[in-house]
Amino acid sequence: MSLAALVRWLNELPVSVALRESELAFPLTEAIHLLGLAISVGTIMFVDLRLLGLIMRKERVRDLISRLEPWAIFGFVIMFVTGGLLFLGKPENYYPTSPFRIKMLLLPLAGLNVLFFHKKVYPNVAQWDDAETPPGAARLVGAVSAVLWIVIIVLGRWTAYYSDELFSRGAQ
Asked: CB neighbours (10 Å) of residue 45?
């Protein structure tokens, strides 16, 4: 089965049709997605900015992460589930758009950045936990994370616009 055939098949699933045809389901899912995004990326940005040494310089990195990471995970789970439902609601609209495809490529990179942080940088946090400016590897992880999430959010908004019928008709 080709990817295009899979997208067409997903588009015809009863849950996909229900999400599209309901006056409430899709907008409510989108609102919950944005709340998950605010929780997850909002807390991630605090950590990123601390790793960059730009905010909360007197705050220990370990303390900040232990308080915020559960919220970031909670928000990400909400974002992931509702993002899947949003795609499922309009797969034939979203799949062809370049912003959506680029966003889908960047999401795993953000995940790899988190994995790199937890496997390579964070195990040595005791050596630099109290430093106002963390070491280069921590700053790099923070910068990459911040940039990736900002770009992912912008691409998500562009996906919504580029996949919208009104935008498509106006561009012709």
From this structure: 18
